[in-house]
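Handout, tutorial session.
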Amino acid sequence: MPTVPTLPGITSTIVPTSRLKIHLLSHGSTTDVPVIFFHGNASSATYWEEIMLKLPAGMRGLAPDLRGYGDTEDLLINAERGMGDWVDDFLALKAALGIGKYHLVGHSMGGTIVFAIVAADSANVLSATVVNPGSPYGFGGSKGLDGSPCYDDFAGSGGGIVNPEFPKLIAVGDRSSDNPQASPRVVMNAFYWKPPFKPQREEDLLSSLLTEKIGPDRYPGDFVASPNWPHVAPGKWGPINALSPKYVGDFVQRFLAVQPKPAFLWVRGDSDQIVSDNSLFDFGTLGQLGLVPGWPGAEVYPPQPMVSQVRSILNQYASQGGSYREVVITDTGHSPYIEKPEVFMASFAAFLAENS
């Protein structure tokens, strides 16, 4: 039985692969065209269930719990490989299921992973949809449209940027609203969607958040002291370190160079506070607001222009033969597919049809 109850019509299975045992939610026939959904940080495949049930006829939804999350086997994420562990895990899942061509969908961190999978397997990707994706240049510690590091040691990214109380409360399964800065329920309802919205499945989505694997080598991950503000630099383990610009390497260049280039649909909420050009989870923004002392100023450490970086990369992708469409859903936050699923499906279903 999965940790989080599933909606009627969703099947939960454990799939043995050559790398690890992956918990997979699915909907549809094995003869249908696969649509692969990747969740974001501090969540699991549960977040995609409603959209999976709304897929057009002939489409099969498949949503794995990523390594480090949900009911997938608890193995470490080697952050020095960037997103490599997640990409290779998916390719192993694809092989185990006998999947050929497929559509890709990813939210937040899962959106960043979609960019990486396209870089690795574009020949088999029918289309790619990213929803409020993190910047392909990584989360934190970079500036400018080209993702230049603020410091050589990438200070301000990695495991040390997480409020330590948040993972502690996840680890004990806290379901209260007692800590306005770190209670998982408060963080979810304040930042995952635009208040005062609350989803009907609030309790299940909170349970999903609480499945993240916690520890110094898991979430939030390790970090090292830095002489550079805000005085923490990336470590080597866990998902937040894996998303550091320190470990991006040549991934963006490989993404831009892929052939063929599947079409992209970029969907985002207009009121996102997590992935934004002024993200409240980014030290550049927090320093500029005076919430973290010692900020060295906008020339050294501005807010990371996350949305503008995504747009810049997609514009380059389009100039080199690819294509993308940007859809902004009004009055929504970080999860427009949960806040306004029918509006999301109007663009998403049409995009799938165009690229099937």
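The second record follows below. Compare its token runs with those of the first.
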Amino acid sequence: MADLAQGGANGQDASDLELFEKYLSEDMDLDMPGRGDLREGVIVEVRPTELLVNVGSKRDGVVPQSDLARLDPTYVKGLREGMTVDVVVSKQPEDDGVFVLSMADALQQRDWLTAQQMLESGEISEHKVIGYNKGGLTVEFNHLRGFVPASHVVDMPRNLSEDQRREELEGRINGSMRLKVIEVDPKRRRLVMSQMLAEREYRSQAKEALFKKLAVGDIVTGTVRSMRSFGAFIDIGGVDGLLHVSEIGFGNVNHPREALGVGQEVQVQVIRIDTDNQRVGLSRKKLLANPWDGIEARYSVGVVVPAVVTRIAEFGAFAQLEPGVEGLIHISEIADIAVAEPLRMIKPGDKVTVKVLRVDQKRQRIGLSIRQAQDEAAPAA
């Protein structure tokens, strides 16, 4: 039995030796590239309609014009003798012929390898949206096309009609998005990516890093992500901070949409940090000029000015003189004492003329009168 094994081993050695001798004597190429192989080659000659490329074997290969036409014209113009390029063997030589090579296929094959590496590593990268279909978005991935299913697109509304869905997807063309590779299948030419998973991981990493360096008083630039009646959520780099409606500005803001828009960049100041619950409070108002500064010079006692009624209270009405500056019209200063229900005479939104009675810059209060402004405007009897 051992002799048989030994004989088999000797036979294998003899076969290997024979192959080696044949290689030396007959100029046989053991490293002959096979069809579909990806190789690094060196440009030997730049011809008018093709490239001659040496791929390390005994014979050179040709990249035909039909393949060069698939490449970026600017890139092709820059090709020179001696440059190293990636090629794929499209056709093996017959007799004394040459290999037919493809640089376009090589670029794609390199991209498939890159995509596989990204799938294994979980790397997040940014890509441009170039189209859409019924199922989702198509994106650039170097020389390939990636696909992002609609279910993996961030902020994609549900229960849309076909027209609404098409409009929603079409609106994202030419935009860019962070993506994570979730499926690579070169044979079926399937490269599937996810914005949802990428954003979730990116924001988690960014949030952790941001909370380590963020401090109350910091001034940061963020993007409005969404709005509610009580305020706007601002993305300040992986963390959504709350800009309460009272901190948007000095004017009377009933809803954030009156002053902000989704996607708008805003500069805000950090006013609260809750590390345990990972919440951040923001203020835009603190970065704006205070309209109460110099108020006494602009509205001296006795001056008559226009105002807009903003709200009604049991004791009177409030009126805005300018954004961020409201004064109180006491019920006794709305109309003559003979009027039974003076509050019924005005409503929010009414434009009125008022007389400034008192100004307290420190307490940010102004006393106003409609009645006295009307008395001054009335002609003498």
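Points raised in discussion: The chain has four domains: 38-107, 122-199, 214-287, 295-377.
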